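Table S2 (text version). Query chain:
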Amino acid sequence: MPALRFTTAGESHGPGEVCVLTGVPAGLSLPVEVVDAELARRQRGYGRGGRMRVERDRVRILSGVRWGETIGTPIAMLVENRDHLNWIPAMQVEEPTTEERAAVRQVTVPRPGHADFAGLAKYGHEDVRNVLERSSARETVGRVCAGAVAKLVLKAIGAEVRGRVISIGPEVDDTPVDYTEPHSVDWKAVEAGECACLDGSAERRMRAAIDEAKAAGESLGGVIEIWAWGLPPGFGGYGLPGERLDGLLMGAIGGIPALKGVEIGTAFENASRVGSAVHDPLVLCAEVGGGVITRPSNRAGGIEGGMTNGMPIIARAAMKPIPTLTTPLPSVDVSGLRATSAHKERSDVTAVPAARVVAEAMVACVLASACLEQLGGDNMQSFLASFERYVAGLEARGLWAR
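Corresponding structure-token output:
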């Protein structure tokens, strides 16, 4: 069982989104503003829909924190859905009156590409709203709350997680970067743009593609890239399948709504190369006093044998176009098995920039959990002391240097 665990609850137009996070050591400084900043990043991005003008996500921490610090007990976080007021009685918790029930339109036409059809089959529902409210990407609010806390755990040991957009639709940002050096990416430029990419000309092309898709009633997917750096080698494991960090990361990222493919490093390119052109050589860097082992390349994406190898962790993920279209695809009305068009819900043209924030959160949760599992510590003092001992041992052997 992972050291850091969280669960989320809440429907898209229900009263709110909830996250309960356990395993965080006592003594971690947790300003509410840090979580709110991550929630705000999730709401940004060119191509977002009208929902982002309604919601102003702010977290309310209900437990596990006292006087700005964690106390070692479960952290419960609530983000209220402002739009819920517009969805009464359709999404109220209380049973509606006969008149209220009659006024609520049931959704009986599943959208292709969404969870609607399979959810009806699984739970025996007749109203698709019972499925789409939870399967909505609004659920990722809770993941971002958990990720904000996990990032603070990682920051305490000098590790960081950041993400950028590689492509939206057909438009690609192919700016060259050095995958052995995280600061070869201008992260300030990434945050400043509405498409979260590096190159200004690529952003202009992406915005034009989004505008064109919106006019056509279409949606766009894309590719995101997540970086994590500052972690020493040896976190994760190879003894059991559930210890392997690459598998945990791919599962966590692939479990985000609409993300359909994940690779670590240059995995798909590597599949067509010979081994000598894939594996990253070990070399001695004499610039560090006494010499230290390093790598001139990072095609493995920072993970070998299910463990960190001291290089930046690189993960990429492909996001499919959002399945809610303003020009709906053919579907079937399940109430009478009648051919029709899928129903429309308010939606984004693209959410690729927001997906990289959610993916950052999931990567942070996996990595923070791996650190806590390896180093232990019910409080931050013992956790940090254990980290220092571990790193000192690596540095003494020339296996890694900060």
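Notes on Table S2: The mean pLDDT is 94. The longest helix spans residues 352-375.
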